[in-house]
Design a protein that fits this description.
heterodimer; A: 231 residues; six-stranded mixed β-sheet; four-stranded antiparallel β-sheet; globular; B: 395 residues; 2 domains; 11 helices; 13 strands
């Protein structure tokens, strides 16, 4: 483990009990994600992509092994501690945007900042900056239903970056968008990675989306197929 | 502070999304509305009845009835008993030195209720002219006082509103005798306003009561002090009488109130169970429809406490809304409504429903309880919702 490692997974296993049957998704998985990586994870359905993303995001716990983030072990944190850890370190970008339908764009973007000690004025400044970065400053007062899919995903990106997290986790971020809009979103993620140094992990089915990443990992039946990126 | 902000955001989102669950939310509100309206109707009835009886009894008036009689109606007093008690210690004197008392009769006559057209019993009280002064706040509001020896009655103000045929100048028939309404009186809203008054001796004669009476009302020299009269009754073996202050007497007559209140609460609690089921159903549906939003907030870092209180708040808001509508309906349709019911003497006591702030508070507390209990388990489910729901592909 070195200082440039953001994530280290050591011998991670994940098993589910379905009825009387135990299903193993991962068994002794090792993985390292370096700071500044833009990593695409690809693989067929059932290969464990989303389960891996959930474990990286701290919303699912491994059955065995260790998960280290920036030099600290996180797989033993309590639910409350994990929520605080997510709030401080992770920005999520979902396939279907997961915006709050009753809140306008600015209010949606502000949500992670409500977990900080920032004043209302400071929060407003950060929200404006994030919306400007994604090119939607003029849509701050619009509700999600008044926006296109691409605009909603840009609001979701603004929400993911507004609290300046170390890691962005993207679950099929372009899965619900047309090609041109998808490219715009991917260019934006690339910009966040290159210009702002954000580490990004993106799960995708789409090979052309994976081209925007600096590395691609292929998962199949809980194993990485490409060895060069595996620790 | 951070936790409060989180809770507030979840509450705002839940409340704003209510129109998405409009009919179910309205059903939950309606259920609580009915519960609170029923409860407050019973309680305001009991409250109005209590106020009428409370105001009727005075502490400086003693009421004497036959020993063991539960009410004025089944009491009988002989002239001998009346004379013996009238000279007992503790009986006040009039300005001309006479014992200050009124020997009274209490007979039942028929009247037709305006609201239903049904025949009911109302009391005709035969009083001595001096008896008029033994009631607080009594005054003739129209016409004049009856004249001794004549078939004339004066009518309590509440009787006029509730029963037909007692307007000033009208002639009414009780059995074979005819009586003329010569006056209307008020006593400041007490139970006496549910009565007809006439000259005691005329009532004795028309209702063939000989020289007997049913009750005595005595002005006491010291308010509440019955000891002198009690001693005199004990000392005379021919007397078998009960003596109470008028306040005590009417308080005992109000025992029926407790039953009204009990029935009101029993019905309301049974109905509350139905409202509770409605609230639970609404809130479980609400949590299910917002599961992705709740999970997304949790993924962002919102605590499960905020999900819990946000959901609970929605349930409480719906219930309190229902409670307020129920209380408002109760106020609009019941408060101030005058009706009559059978009192302890099998005669009608006329009273007004009265919705006091204390009763309003009880209604809202019941609504709150329904909201809290009905929201607790769905809120618990919201708090325990797995965060991975946010990553599921169903939109």
């Amino acid at each position: 483990m070195t200082d440039d490692h953001l994530f280290d997974l050591k011998g991670v296993s994940k098993r589910f009990i379905k009825g009387k049957e135990a299903i193993s998704i991962f068994d002794g998985l090792d993985m390292t994600i370096k700071k500044g990586d833009f990593l695409a994870i690809m693989g067929p359905s059932g290969s464990g992509k989303t389960t891996l993303l959930n474990m990286l995001g701290g919303v699912d716990q491994p059955t065995g092994g260790e998960v280290w983030f920036d030099g600290k072990r996180i797989d033993k944190l309590s639910e409350g501690q994990m929520a605080n850890w997510r709030a401080g370190n992770i920005g999520f970008i979902f396939q279907f945007y997961n915006l709050m339908p009753m809140l306008n764009a600015a209010r949606n973007v502000e949500l992670p900042l409500l977990l900080t000690n920032l004043s209302a004025a400071q929060r407003k400044k950060s929200v404006t900056a994030a919306l400007e970065l994604v090119g939607l400053a003029d849509r701050a007062s619009h509700l999600p239903k008044e926006m296109s899919g691409g605009q909603m995903q840009r609001v979701a990106i603004a929400r993911a970056i507004v609290s300046d997290p170390k890691l962005l986790l993207c679950d099929e971020p372009t899965g619900d968008l047309d090609r041109n809009t998808a490219d715009e979103i991917l260019e934006m993620l690339q910009l966040l990675n290159k210009e702002f140094g954000k580490t990004i992990v993106m799960v995708t089915h789409d090979p052309s989306a994976a081209k925007y990443a600096t590395h691609t990992l292929h998962l199949d039946k809980g194993q990485f197929v490409e060895k060069d990126l595996v620790a | 502070m951070k936790l409060l902000s989180q809770i507030w955001v979840v509450i705002v989102m839940n409340i704003r999304s209510l129109p998405q669950r409009l009919w179910m939310s309205l059903a939950a509100i309606l259920a609580v509305t009915v519960v609170v309206a029923v409860l407050l109707s019973f309680l305001s009835m009991a409250n109005g009845f209590a106020k009428t009886l409370e105001g009727t009894g005075s502490n400086d008036i003693a009421i004497v009835t036959r020993g063991g009689s539960q009410s004025e109606l089944n009491s009988v007093l002989s002239r001998h008993a009346v004379n013996a008690v009238s000279v007992a210690p503790g009986v006040a004197k009039t300005a001309d030195g006479q014992p200050y008392y009124s020997a009274e009769l209490y007979v039942v006559v028929n009247a037709i209720k305006k609201s239903s057209g049904t025949k009911v019993n109302i009391p005709l009280r035969g009083i001595d002219p001096i008896g008029f002064t033994l009631r607080d706040h009594v005054k003739i509001t129209a016409g004049r006082m009856f004249q001794p020896g004549k078939n004339e009655i004066i009518v309590g103000q509440k009787v006029l509103g509730q029963f037909s045929g007692f307007e000033l100048g009208k002639e009414v028939k009780f059995g074979k005798s005819r009586w003329t309404v010569v006056g209307i009186f008020s006593t400041g809203g007490t139970a006496f306003e549910s009565e007809l008054w006439a000259d005691a001796r005329t009532v004795q004669s028309q209702f063939r009561r000989g020289d007997s009476y049913q009750t005595m009302r005595i002005k006491l020299t010291t308010p509440g002090d019955l000891s002198g009269i009690e001693k005199a009754i004990k000392a005379d073996p021919t007397l078998n009488l009960d003596v109470k202050t008028e306040a005590q007497y009417f308080a005992e007559q109000g025992q029926a109130l407790k039953n009204i209140v009990r029935v009101g609460w029993a019905i309301s609690i049974v109905m509350s169970l139905g409202a509770l089921a409605g609230a639970l159903n609404t809130m479980f549906t609400s949590v299910a429809s917002r599961s992705k939003e709740i999970a997304t907030l949790r993924a962002i870092g919102f605590s499960n406490v905020s999900a819990f209180f946000g959901t609970l708040a929605e349930s409480v808001v719906l219930s309190v809304l229902g409670g307020l509508v129920g209380a408002l309906m109760s106020y609009l349709f019941m408060d101030g409504m005058t009706t009559s019911t059978l009192g302890a003497s099998f005669t009608q006591v006329i009273f007004t429903f009265e919705l006091s702030p204390a009763l309003f508070e009880k209604g809202i507390i019941l609504a709150l309880l329904i909201g809290v209990i009905g929201g607790f388990f769905p809120a618990w489910r919201a708090a325990r919702l797995p965060v991975v729901v946010a990553f599921r592909n169903a939109s």
